[in-house]
Design goal:
Layout lengths: L7 E2 L7 E7 L2 E7 L6 H11 L5 E4 L2 E8 L2 E9 L5 E7 L6 H11 L6 H8 L5 H7 L11 H10 L5 H15 L2 E6 L13 H6 L9 H15 L11 H9 L6 H12 L10 H4 L11 H8 L6 H16 L21
Parallel strand pairs: 2-8
Antiparallel strand pairs: 1-2, 3-7, 4-5, 5-6, 6-7
Helix pairs in contact: 5-6, 5-8, 5-10, 9-10
GO biological process, one term: DNA alkylation repair
Catalytic activity: Hydrolysis of alkylated DNA, releasing 3-methyladenine, 3-methylguanine, 7-methylguanine and 7-methyladenine
Protein name: DNA-3-methyladenine glycosylase II
Length: about 350
């Protein structure tokens, strides 16, 4: 075994098996943060989007399977009671990558932002000021893997979060490699890697549950990443990333901005056409147009993604009330604000 992993081994079915053998040890890092920060917001976020097999969620712990290069294993994150710290546990097979994983998890759980700075920026805004004053600790959850989030964004075009998760789970079940790991520290149910770009690009997805055009968009995205034509990074800024994504047929500004926001935790990304943003009750009965919202958002730079998070929460709080309809295409499912 090299670096704690075994070679990819053939298995029956569409998936393949990765055997990590039997493990007892793990590596731990403590990740501090500044208050206010709320575990329940992230728990709610992951609960709505959980990919069974790839991810596992307990009341006080989030876990998932990860791959860095040829190294495969798991990570687990939990808040330490009474301390302003998250504990990151990493499987022995990924131990040498603990510094890299710590940085990724800090971004994923948005531990480095200064909430006081954001509150000051929006304090005088007639729309965002009251929302942020009421919930100053709301953060920006983002994905561990940008490609995984890009897939979720394409699958999520014009459907609810629940529907998108159902389809993405099908992708995992059909195309994700199977993980065999007898590790007493691993959360139960972590048995799958998220499908690779090449697996999605070459798969027959006609019966996956999406319209043909969206299937074609997903396969084009995966093929572009697989062959290196599209590099998913934000090194040259969010505008350059959005521009590159929009060159792919089927990917427009909403999808590209959403990938920047959730895939990279870009603080100024803003999917202005999102229906949850447009129909949030703070705009009044008629909502707001995407053009007007885009103009309004200029005053919110460089923290527009945080404005989006608060507006989505405003929409979700209202949609959770009895008798309020759920809007297809909005980012947030209607959930109780008590479960943030």
């Amino acid at each position: 075994m090299t670096g704690g992993t075994a070679p990819f081994q053939s298995a029956s079915g569409e998936g393949r098996h990765i055997n990590l053998g039997y493990r007892l040890s793990m590596h731990i890092a403590h990740l501090p943060y500044v208050l206010p920060w709320n575990w329940s917001q992230f728990h709610q976020h992951f609960a709505l989007r959980l990919l069974s097999g790839v991810e596992a969620l307990e009341p006080d712990r989030y876990s998932r399977v990860v791959q860095i290069g040829r190294h495969v294993g798991w990570i687990s994150v939990r808040p330490i009671p009474g301390q302003h710290v998250l504990e990151l546990s990493v499987s022995d097979s990924l131990g040498e990558h603990l510094p890299t994983l710590s940085l990724r998890v800090r971004k994923m759980f948005d531990l480095d932002v200064d909430p006081a700075e954001i509150a000051r920026h929006f304090a005088s805004d007639r729309y965002l000021g009251p929302l942020i004053a009421a919930d100053p600790g709301l953060r920006l959850p983002s994905a561990f893997n940008p490609f995984e989030q890009a897939v979720r964004a394409v699958v999520g075009q014009q459907v609810t979060v629940k529907a998108a998760v159902t389809i993405t789970r099908r992708l995992v079940e059909r195309l994700g490699e199977n993980l065999d790991c007898a590790d007493e520290n691993k959360a139960p149910g972590l048995i799958k890697l998220f499908p690779t770009p090449s697996a999605i690009a070459t798969a027959a997805l006609e019966n996956i549950g999406m319209p043909g055009k969206r299937v074609a968009t997903l396969k084009r995205l995966a093929a572009a990443v697989a062959d290196g034509a599209l590099e998913l990074h934000i090194d040259n800024g969010p505008d350059e990333l959005v521009s590159r994504l929009c060159e792919l047929p089927g990917i427009g500004p909403w999808t590209a901005q959403y990938i920047a926001l959730r895939g990279f935790g870009e603080a100024d990304a803003f999917p202005a056409a999102d229906l949850g943003l447009l129909k949030a009750p703070l705009w009044g009965e008629g909502g707001i147009s995407s053009r007007a919202l885009r103009a309004q958002s200029e005053a919110w730079r460089p923290w527009r993604a945080y404005a989006a998070v608060h507006i989505w929460q405003n929409y979700s709080d209202a949609a959770a009330k009895p008798g309020r309809p759920w809007i297809t295409g909005a980012e947030s499912e209607p959930v109780s604000s008590a479960s943030r």
